[in-house]
Amino acid sequence: TDVELKRLKDAFKRTCGLSYYMGQHCFIREVLGDGVPPKVAEVIYCSFGGTSKGLHFNNLIVGLVLLTRGKDEEKAKYIFSLFSSESGNYVIREEMERMLHVVDGKVPDTLRKCFSEGEKVNYEKFRNWLFLNKDAFTFSRWLLSGGVYVTLTDDSDTPTFYQTLAGVTHLEESDIIDLEKRYWLLKAQSRTGRFDLETFGPLVSPPIRPSLSEGLFNAFDENRDNHIDFKEISCGLSACCRGPLAERQKFCFKVFDVDRDGVLSRVELRDMVVALLEVWKDNRTDDIPELHMDLSDIVEGILNAHDTTKMGHLTLEDYQIWSVKNVLANEFLNLLFQVCHIVLGLRPATPEEEGQIIRTLETDQIYTRN
C-alpha cells in the first residue's frame, strides 16, 4: 500500500542516507535481522540483485513483497532460480549439491528423488519434489514452512520513529519530520557520506568561530563515533533550543568540555572565555567590564566564585550557576539559538521566536553593511 511504501522509503532513507543502495551487512542487520541464518541471508541478498555496490531500493521492495506476500508457486519459482543454470531452464544436481554444502553444510537424502531420472530437472519436476519436501533444506524450510517473520506492515501499537523521538525530546512530530528533510540536505553535502566534522564545520562557521566548531560538533555527537546521526541532531537541537534553561546550559557545557571528562579545567575555562569574548565582539557593540580585564583575572575570578570542589575546575553544576546571570554565556546561548534555526533547520516553536530570529538577522545585516 502507499502507506507501507512511504514507511519503507523513510526507513531506507534513515538507514542509507541519500544513496539508493543498501550494503549487504546493512541488509542482513536492518531488514532480515538475526533470525535468518547467515548463509541464507547472503543468498537472499544476492538473489534480490545485491552486488558489491549494494542493493537498490526498487529491488529490495520487489524481494520483500515476494518473501512476505508471495504465493507458494512464486516462492517455488524463486527457489528454482537460485539453483538453476544460466539459461534458467533447469537445475543441475552437481551445482545444487555444491550450493547446499555451502549454505547448509550437507545435502538432504531426499534430493536423490528429485534427480531420480537424470542429473538435471526442469521447473515442473523440481516444483513437485519441493512441495513434497518443504523442509529439505534451510532455505525451503524458512520460505515455505512459515519461517518468514519479516513483515511489511505493523498492526501493533508500537510508536513510529517520529513519535519515539518526540517522546524523548521537546520537539513535536511535525518538527522532527521537517528537521529530517533539512538533515538529509545538509548531509548530502558531505564528501564521505557522513555528517562528520568536515561537513559540519563550514556549515556553522561563520557565525560560529572555528575555535568552537569542533566543541559544538562534539556536543551533538553523543556516542562519539565522529559523525552526527539524525537522532543525535534532533536531541541536540531539542536540548539547545527547546529545553529548560538548565538543559540548554548543559549543552553549552559540553561544547567547552573538550576532553569530555565532565569538568572544565583551567585551560578549558581560558579557551572558553576567549571564545565567548570573540562571540560578544562579533555580535554586540555595547561595552562590558570583561572586555577590559586580563584573561587570567577573568578565569581566576570564575574559579574563586564558583569552584565548589576547590580543585581548580568547574563541574556542570558550577558552570550552570555561573552562567545563569553571565552576559557572555547568555550571548553564546543566543548565537546557538540562531544557528540551530537558520543553519540546522529547526522550525521556530512560536511566532515570537520567529520574530526574534528575523530581527536578529536584520540587525546582523545592518551591522555587516556598516
UniProtKB/TrEMBL annotation:
<keyword id="KW-0677">Repeat</keyword>
<keyword id="KW-0788">Thiol protease</keyword>
<dbReference type="InterPro" id="IPR002048">
    <property type="entry name" value="EF_hand_dom"/>
</dbReference>
<feature type="domain" description="EF-hand">
    <location>
        <begin position="244"/>
        <end position="279"/>
    </location>
</feature>
<dbReference type="GO" id="GO:0004843">
    <property type="term" value="F:cysteine-type deubiquitinase activity"/>
</dbReference>
<dbReference type="InterPro" id="IPR011992">
    <property type="entry name" value="EF-hand-dom_pair"/>
</dbReference>
<keyword id="KW-0645">Protease</keyword>
<dbReference type="Pfam" id="PF13202">
    <property type="entry name" value="EF-hand_5"/>
</dbReference>
<protein>
    <recommendedName>
        <fullName>Ubiquitin carboxyl-terminal hydrolase 32</fullName>
        <ecNumber>3.4.19.12</ecNumber>
    </recommendedName>
</protein>
<dbReference type="GO" id="GO:0005509">
    <property type="term" value="F:calcium ion binding"/>
</dbReference>
<keyword id="KW-0833">Ubl conjugation pathway</keyword>
<dbReference type="Pfam" id="PF25265">
    <property type="entry name" value="USP32_N"/>
</dbReference>
<keyword id="KW-0378">Hydrolase</keyword>
<keyword id="KW-0597">Phosphoprotein</keyword>
<dbReference type="GO" id="GO:0006508">
    <property type="term" value="P:proteolysis"/>
</dbReference>
<feature type="domain" description="EF-hand">
    <location>
        <begin position="208"/>
        <end position="243"/>
    </location>
</feature>
<keyword id="KW-0106">Calcium</keyword>
<dbReference type="InterPro" id="IPR057368">
    <property type="entry name" value="USP32_N"/>
</dbReference>
<dbReference type="InterPro" id="IPR028846">
    <property type="entry name" value="Recoverin"/>
</dbReference>
<dbReference type="InterPro" id="IPR018247">
    <property type="entry name" value="EF_Hand_1_Ca_BS"/>
</dbReference>
<keyword id="KW-0479">Metal-binding</keyword>
